[in-house]
Amino acid sequence: MRAQNGDQSFAHRCRVYYEDTDAGGIVYYVNYLKFMERARTERLRELGFAQSQLAGEDLLFVVHSSEARYHAPARLDDELLVSAEVIELNRASLRFKQQVRRATDATLLCEGQFLVACVRTNSLKPRAIPETLRVAFAAVSGAGKQSKQEI
């Protein structure tokens, strides 16, 4: 399903700590991926699904592919807003569009897309996204028609 832009936005707040930065106090580029991972996890939690609960149900979400663009640096002590919007919902995968913005002035720092596959815990083989989870994501993303791309 191709998701439509829904009214319900989501943003995870986080702070830049010393451990996130280089010697100049600027966020090291790979840490944006960590911030975005946390936002996807918190998005699931907001929908009522904990990663630990899903693992117990033979379900994991794994990143299949990622793309990131860096626009401006975040610095030590900045507060960040990290979005996690589902833009595509398939049988066994989700595509997230994410942005990292500075909370004080909404400056876009980094943006990316992540294809996240649903797999079985032990075999890591693809599995269908459970209907309850599919319905929850469709409700907040306004999912529409079926996508031609599928994992």
Structural class: alpha+beta
Question: What kind of sheet is the major sheet?
Answer: 6 strands, antiparallel
CATH hierarchy: architecture: Roll
Low-confidence stretches: 1-7, 143-151
Beta-strand percentage range:
25-35%
Broad CATH class: Alpha Beta
Instruction: Give the averaged pLDDT, no decimals.
Output: 89
CATH topology: Thiol Ester Dehydrase, Chain A
How would you spell out the order of helices and strands? EHHEEEEEH
Distance between the termini: 12 Å
CATH superfamily: Hotdog Thioesterase
Keywords: Hydrolase
Domain Thioesterase: 24-107
Family: Belongs to the 4-hydroxybenzoyl-CoA thioesterase family.
Organism: Pseudomonas rhodesiae
What does this protein look like?
- The protein has helices at residues 31-46, 51-56, 131-141; strands at 11-15, 60-70, 79-83, 85-89, 93-102, 108-119.
- By secondary structure, it is α+β, with helices and mostly antiparallel strands.
- The chain starts with 10 loop residues before the first strand and ends in a 10-residue tail after the last helix.
- The model is unreliable at 1-7 and 143-151 (pLDDT under 50).
- It comes from Pseudomonas rhodesiae.
- InterPro entries: 4-hydroxybenzoyl-CoA_TE, HotDog_dom_sf, Thioestr_dom, Tol-Pal_acyl-CoA_thioesterase, YbgC/YbaW.
- Belongs to the 4-hydroxybenzoyl-CoA thioesterase family.
- Keywords: Hydrolase.
